[in-house]
UniProtKB/TrEMBL annotation:
Protein name: Adenylyl-sulfate kinase
Uppermost EC category: transferase
Record domain APS kinase: where: 19-168
Gene Ontology annotations for the cellular component aspect, listed alphabetically: cytoplasm
Keyword ATP-binding: yes
Organism: Kribbella soli
Keywords: ATP-binding, Kinase, Nucleotide-binding, Transferase
Protein's GO biological process: hydrogen sulfide biosynthetic process; sulfate assimilation via adenylyl sulfate reduction; sulfate assimilation, phosphoadenylyl sulfate reduction by phosphoadenylyl-sulfate reductase (thioredoxin)
Amino acid sequence: MLTELQATKTESQRAGAGGVTLWLTGLPSAGKSTVARAAAEVLARRGHRVEILDGDEIRAVFGSSGFDRAARDENVRRIGWLAELLARNGVTVLVASIAPYRETRDQVRASHERAGLPFVEVHAAASVESCVARDVKGLYARQRRGEISGVTGIDDPYESPVAPELRLYTDREDVSLSVAAVIEYLTTHELV
């Protein structure tokens, strides 16, 4: 009799040797990183190889020339390249990145598709008001005080996904519901 872990690995192997990129996009403080971390824990417990790529962490490691459109697009392309590299090596990649521009997210998706790798866009849909109330990193407060500008959703645009594979209402539902939706999607589409 197979243990639960062995059974899960067998199911994962049937899904193919390749990995998958699950890209959580949304406003600052929408809950992208929270959902990514919680979903990664569930997947890891089930025996999957999982990595989280957090947009802020990637920016800190690789540096960036700023927050204008060109710099934001370059950061998203870097994250996309890393995600593709990991997915190509059988890793389930959970990306938590604002990635404000639809065109750049579409470029990352197209690159995954050319490589034969699944790309799942997940919109962490939360209202600006709820994100301002959470203000996890203090961005909105700093913008109100005039210390910074270019805050996505306030004085810089955020282009919501038109047809994401998943839309999570992270300002209205508990994290566990969002994570369950992510796991269910990956499982029912045989991506894990």
